[in-house]
Amino acid sequence: MAAKKTFQANFVGEGATAEDGPQPRELYDKSRFGELVSGKFKYSLSEALFLLENKKIELLDKNKSLSKEDFLKKARKIDKNFWVKYVVFSNLRAKGYIVKTALKFGADFRVYDKGIKPGEDHAKWIVFPVHESNTLTWHDFSAKNRVSHSTRKNLLIGVVDEEDDVTYYEIAWKKP
Q1: How far is CA 7 from CA 24, 26, 69, 71, in A?
Q2: Which of 84, 101, 86 is nearest to 42 (CA)?
């Protein structure tokens, strides 16, 4: 008998959680979705929406199934820039990269080179998603560049346009 394709996860303040089981574990082992903490898989908001869109999970809030639209309303209340971040997250995941949160690094995401999983090696980039209509001061740019340099990762700026297309700019330190 074939394994069930979806599993249930509960919406929580900063994402979703699912009980440890065959489907969440297989998804983690294969693609590093979520993080196992105290016997439960914890998913970021971006991971939860990506898995919902790709029909891997059913999201529940107080035992009621959440639609994509309902989830987006909740996510935007938590993070007003959620959609721009999600567009970059989704774009990188669709290209085969593993993308994890990077709050402890002072960035939105950390991205692993193709074929590398967290724990096997360090992330190659830290990513800052921005909308094309936003401005970035030299001070902001310098701060982002310093974060990437201090974490020994390349800086990737993901610029999202009005059509939700993403253009990436990689910034790296060079010694003449």
Answers
A1: 7, 11, 19, 17
A2: 101
Q: Quick check: is 122 catalytic? A: yes
Tens-level pLDDT at each residue, the chain (176 residues): 444 588 999 999 889 999 999 999 999 999 999 999 999 999 999 999 999 999 999 999 998 999 999 999 999 999 999 999 999 999 999 999 999 999 888 899 999 999 888 888 999 999 999 999 999 899 988 888 888 888 889 999 999 999 999 999 998 777 78
- Evaluate if pTM is beyond 0.85: yes
Architecture category of domain 7-78 in CATH? 3-Layer(aba) Sandwich (3.40)
Is the CATH number of domain 96-171 3.40.1350.10?
A: yes
Question: Which residue is catalytic, options 95, 122, 168, 169?
Answer: 122
Q: For 71-125, what is the HEC assignment?
A: HHHHHHHHCCCHHHHHHHHHHHHHCCCEEEECHHHCCCEEEECCCCCECCECCCE
Strand partners, 169: 157
Catalytic residue among 112, 114, 174, 175: 112
